[in-house]
Amino acid sequence: MLTVKAFSLLTEFDISLFQSGKHFRMYQKLGSHLVESEGEQGVYFAVWAPHARQVSVTGNFNAWNPKSHVLLPRWDKSGIWEGFIPKLGKGTVYKYHITMPNGKGLDKGDPYALRWETPPQTASIVWDLDDYRWDDQTWLEKRLQRAGKPQPWSVYEVHPGSWKKIPEDGNRSLNFRELADELVPYVKDMGFSHIELMPVMEHPYFPSWGYQITGYFAPSGRFGSPEDFMHFVDVCHRADIGVILDWVPSHFPGDIHGLYLFDGSHLYEYADMRRGFHPDWNSYVFDYGRNEVRSFLISNALFWLDKYHIDGLRVDAVASMLYHDYSRKEGEWIPNVHGGRENLEAISFLRDFNEAAYKNYPGIETIAEESTAFPAVSKPVWEGGLGFGQKWMMGWMHDTLNYFKRPPVFRRWHQSEVTFSMVYAFSERFMLPLSHDEVVHMKASLLYKMPGNEWEKFANLRALYGHQWTHPGSQILFMGGEFGQTTEWSHDRGVVWDLLKYDFHKGCQEWVRALNHLYTEHPALWWHAFSPEGYEWIGGDDTENCVLAYLRKGSPTDKVLLVICHFKPGILENYTVGVPFGGVWRELLNSDDSRFGGSGTALNGELNAEKKASHGKDFSLTFKLAPLAVQIFEGRDLPKAKPPKSGKQAGKAPAKPKPSEKKQPDKPGKNNVGKDSPKSVGM
After folding, report:
1. Are 459 and 484 spatial neighbours (Cβ–Cβ below 8 Å)?
2. Which one is predicted more confidently, 571 or 681?
3. What is the predicted pLDDT for the residue at 649?
4. Pick from 402, 652, 413: which is nearest to 543 by CA?
5. Do 330 and 246 have their domain in common?
6. String of b and e for 254-265 (b: at least 16 CB within 10 Å)?
7. Residues linked to residue 552 through DSSP beta bridges, in sequence order
8. Catalytic residue of the set 227, 352, 369, 558
9. CATH code assigned at 76
10. Do 291 and 413 belong together in one domain?
11. Counting C-beta atoms within 10 Å of the first and last residue's C-beta, which end of the chain has fewer, N or C?
12. Please, are residues 473 and 394 in contact by the beta-carbon 8 Å criterion?
């Protein structure tokens, strides 16, 4: 047995913080690190395995011999094994051989490894991240200056392994540098403000889309080196595009080289499978009550913000973390200490995570995929909230898609499906999602959810996007949706770019591009995205014609926008809508414009508001109402917009849902459709 030298990067203070769940930089201490000890270059290894009888490092340097390099247990009973092995360097391939309490051995990857072998290989790789030279200081300074201030959030969701394939090279995925060359200019041209990447962390099973992670601190080797991913983020920032990563602290897979049964015990997961196993995903739930696990997870979140300059983390499956009975039947879950179904440990963890992220990296954003009516998800921790910056508005998504699936002749009886969201639109800081989840598992593409012939399908899809982009909140759209992909998303096939040869698809893409540029250029659409000052109903009760009319407002010096949504076919020649001011109103965008694939027969140009009362306003506009379209007008030479009195909305309220149509918060479960509701859930 070769000697492993005693060495440590850990101080007593590190151990104290780690054991109290408050060490948020453990990636600087645990894992493998290139160091010098007594004049020798080598690698320091440290791993938490408190129930192991013995831990050794095996690798390509010792023929994977578990008897060669045995680590030393720390004297402080922290459960950490450590040691220095001289002459090893960057690129060393290794695993930890862990002797379990029963004497049997396990070969595990390093939970804190900065790089992993490319699947199907499963070993960790000694690496460091100090050689890359960043060139995004201007972006980071701008991000800091914008912290806490209104800014546009129009997000393009991307699965990096299938955004574009190379058929000539075995249909392979683009690597990170190729994505930097092709994806970034495309997103810039389309006008999106951010790219959200489905998980880039190392995962053994490609069809999991990255949501079953084994290497939490390593970008997947499928797409290149850690430096290649840094280059991608750097290029995004130099193009003024933010990068959001999907982050998965909710569960992990049972692959033998991963976190499951790490030292022969339920170390990272709850020991009782009524809490520790996810029936939906055949995976395991982190033990949020174990402080060392909390330190691991929050360190991981801060790691991506620190080392990779990431601008936001979208936290996956938050609802599954919040409730013990998520997807579990009666008798299959354990109540909390108060007898309730809320996971109090997970709630505490999420608050700690959000506080740490915003304190250390002001200007970043955390976003919750949370599908229930859990209260105050996007309220600050000091106000009793979970502390997220935004929350996906799943209720809007479900209701709106249900509405658009209906043939227009039936929509008059379901107007509440597109107005109900305004009842609770400002109860959270909402992001409106049309994500990957809506175009998989036999749900059909967004285009093919729409009724009617080909022209009508595209007209409906453009109207859906027009409503999404002008609704309060921010928005996210999954790749391929911007040009009306006809098939469901396939991680093997990828986005079908050949569709852009056809005019309707090109027109849809041009519509999304125009919406994005209008959105970023007009603060009326984002200055008050999360507060009622930015929105005013004109009318939502014209159910016969399926029309919505509303104003969007920015700061007092910004122009007001009037949005008209008409969700029925047919042109109405003289449609009148009340407006708050006189003067000239100019039609900025009309989804029925021929350049977007529309008929082009109901364009309006500039209009003068008449001194004629309508919809409770002193002035009104009369114009052509386009078929299945969204029309956006800008008021010119207007006085400063005044906020509604007493915080209430002026004008007519939206059509109230019938009692049978009112949405109630769903109990989380396998078939949970996730209706957001203004009603609170007690803890």
Report:
1. no
2. 571
3. 38
4. 413
5. yes
6. ebebbbbbbbbe
7. 535, 561
8. 369
9. 2.60.40.10
10. yes
11. N
12. no
Bond prior to 120 in cis (omega within 30° of 0): yes
Q: Which contiguous run of DSSP H or E holds residue 237? A: helix 226-238
The verdict on whether 399 is a catalytic residue reads no
Give me the domain span that covers residue 594. Answer: 532-639+651-661
Average pLDDT over residues 595-605: 93
How long, in residues, is the chain? 683
Asked if residue 6 belongs to a domain, the reply is: no
pLDDT digits (tens, 9 = 90+) for 106-127: 999 999 999 999 999 999 999 9
Beta bridge partners of 94: 59, 124
Closest-CA residue to 175 (of 218, 224, 209)? 224
> How far, rounded to the nearest angstrom, does the alpha carbon of residue 350 sit from its chain's CA centroid?
16
Q: Do residues 158 and 118 make contact, with C-beta atoms less than 8 angstroms apart?
A: no
d(C-alpha 431, C-alpha 370), whole Å? 11
Question: What phi, psi does 219 have (nearest 5°)?
Answer: -65, 150
> Position 170: which residue type?
G
369 is a catalytic site residue: yes
Listed in sequence order, the residues at least 6 apart from 1 whose beta carbon sits closer than 8 Å to its beta carbon are 67, 68, 69, 70
Q: What are phi and psi of 423, to 5 degrees?
A: -65, -30
Structure token digits, residue 603? 């364009």
DSSP codes of every residue in 406-447: S-HHHHGGGTHHHHTHHHHTTSS-EEEEE-GGGGSTT---HH
Cα–Cα dist 460/458, whole Å: 5
> What secondary structure letter does DSSP report for 589?
E
My answer on whether 431 and 567 are in the same domain is no
For residue 502, pLDDT over 80 is answered with: yes
**By the 8 A CB rule, do 18 and 77 touch?**
no
DSSP 343: -
- Shared-domain flag, residues 456 and 498: yes
Band of pLDDT at residue 655, cut at 50, 70 and 90: very low
Cα–Cα distance for residue pair 538/549, rounded to 1 Å: 5
* Conformational region of residue 223, where left means phi above 0, alpha means psi within -120 to 50, and beta covers everything else: alpha
First to last CA, the chain: 55
Spatial separation of the C-alpha atoms in residues 253 and 271, rounded to whole Å: 15
The answer to whether 629 and 459 are in contact (CB under 8 A) is yes
Confidence check: pLDDT of 659 > 80? no
Instruction: Give helix 12-19 / helix 291-307 axis angle, nearest 10°.
Output: 110
Rounded to 5 degrees, what are φ and ψ at 320? -65, -20
Asked if residue 544 and residue 520 are part of one domain, the reply reads: no
Q: Give the integer Cα–Cα distance in Å for 628 and 626.
A: 7
pTM of the prediction? Answer: 0.91
Please tell me the distance from the alpha carbon of residue 214 to that of residue 199, in angstroms, as a whole number.
Answer: 11
Instruction: Decide: helix, strand or coil at residue 360.
Output: helix
Q: Quick one: tokens of 602? A: 């109901």
Q: How confident is the model at residue 578 (pLDDT cuts 50, 70, 90)?
A: very high
Say if 669 falls within a structural domain. no
Q: What percentage of the chain reaches a pLDDT higher than 90?
A: 89
Pair (550, 510) in one structural domain: no
Neighbours of 611 (CB within 10 A): 8
Dihedral Cα 642, 646, 651, 654, nearest 10 deg: 130
For residues 236 and 174, membership in a common domain is answered with yes
Structure tokens at 150: 């209104």
For position 257, which CATH number holds?
Answer: 3.20.20.80
CATH code for the domain in which residue 599 is found: 2.60.40.1180
Q: Which residue among 228, 316, 417, 593 is the active-site one?
A: 316
- Classify residue 220: in a domain, yes or no: yes
Residue 680, pLDDT score:
30
| 659 contacts: CB under 8 Å, gap ≥ 6 | none
Instruction: Say what the pLDDT of residue 7 is.
Output: 95
Q: Is residue 668 part of a domain?
A: no
The total domain count for the chain is 3
Which residue has 């450590």 as its token pair? 82
Closest by CA to 275, choosing from 227, 323, 316, is: 323
